[in-house]
Amino acid sequence: MAVIADIKGVGLGLKRELIPQIQRFSRDSSIANINFVEIAPENWIGAGGKAEADLAWFVERYPITCHGLCLSLGGPDPLNTNFLKQVKQFLNANKIPLYTEHLSYCSDIQHGQAGYLYDLLPIPFTEEAVKYVAQRIRQTQDILGQRIAVENTSFYVAAPISTMNEITFLNAVLTEADCLLHLDINNIYVNSVNFGFDGHEFLRQIPYERIVYSHIAGHLKVGDDVLVDTHGEAIIDPVWALLDEAYQLFGTFPTLLERDTNIPPLTELMLEVDKIAAYQALHNAKKAV
């Protein structure tokens, strides 16, 4: 497992609705299991006023990771190097040790101009795509002056020209780019249902030495074999089971609760944060025996 300074234990995605609640309970033991927080740099770069003050409050109190939304590593348009330079400055200014992005694309060129799409779309699983995406990851790492982690993403339509399966493609990209892995447990489960593979077998092929931290979240069930990765529901038992096995296989890597929609009060979210912490404590105790 790759170790990133101060990123450990359990994290929580930092949504603006949660900021005043975390600040209010900051000295309360009820939120002691929040060890780090995650932000999307696109939402904070250049922010002023109250947002800038809120960020400074968290920088002083919590380790922070950045999980990007718009870099479009698999997209057809050139990487947004100006944005990456802003990210580098933002990371350095706020002492943020890690930047991660999705192994997908979210942009396209139309009429000679790049435009952003409002979804994360799958990359064809081919040798050509491995080399293309890996080159863009290496370019990103060169600009930032540090390794990044890429996240295995959920998707709903398989690219028809794919010549390998998802786990083979993921591992090939990680090796070719020599980057880190932001492991999403829920995305493994969502894809396993949507495309009919064994999520536990997928998990067992993960290169544990590249894991920096993981996401866990809920999803929306719209059919017996169709799940949508909404991050808006409670985590279900099969996803907890995957996390449990991941800790058994790889040790207790840092794990962050994602909740992007239908955000309940912090007290309710803490039930899942505390459950992650309990899984970690259980596996740490087993390891110590």
How would you characterize the overall build of this protein?
By secondary structure, this protein is an alpha/beta fold. The chain has a single domain (10-288), classed as TIM Barrel, CATH 3.20.20.150. The protein has helices at residues 19-24, 49-61, 81-93, 127-144, 166-177, 185-195, 199-204, 237-250, 266-288, and strands at 10-13, 36-39, 64-67, 99-102, 105-110, 113-121, 149-151, 180-184, 211-216, 220-223, 226-228, 255-257. The protein has an 8-stranded parallel barrel with strand order 1-2-3-4-7-8-9-12. Strands 5-6 form a two-stranded antiparallel sheet. Helix 2 links the parallel strand 2 (36-39) and strand 3 (64-67). The protein is globular and about 55 Å long. The two termini are 21 Å apart. The model is unreliable at 107-118 (pLDDT under 50).
Topology:
Blueprint: E1 10-13, H1 19-24, E2 36-39, H2 49-61, E3 64-67, H3 81-93, E4 99-102, E5 105-110, E6 113-121, H4 127-144, E7 149-151, H5 166-177, E8 180-184, H6 185-195, H7 199-204, E9 211-216, E10 220-223, E11 226-228, H8 237-250, E12 255-257, H9 266-288
Parallel strand pairs: 1-2, 1-12, 2-3, 3-4, 4-7, 7-8, 8-9, 9-12
Antiparallel strand pairs: 5-6, 10-11
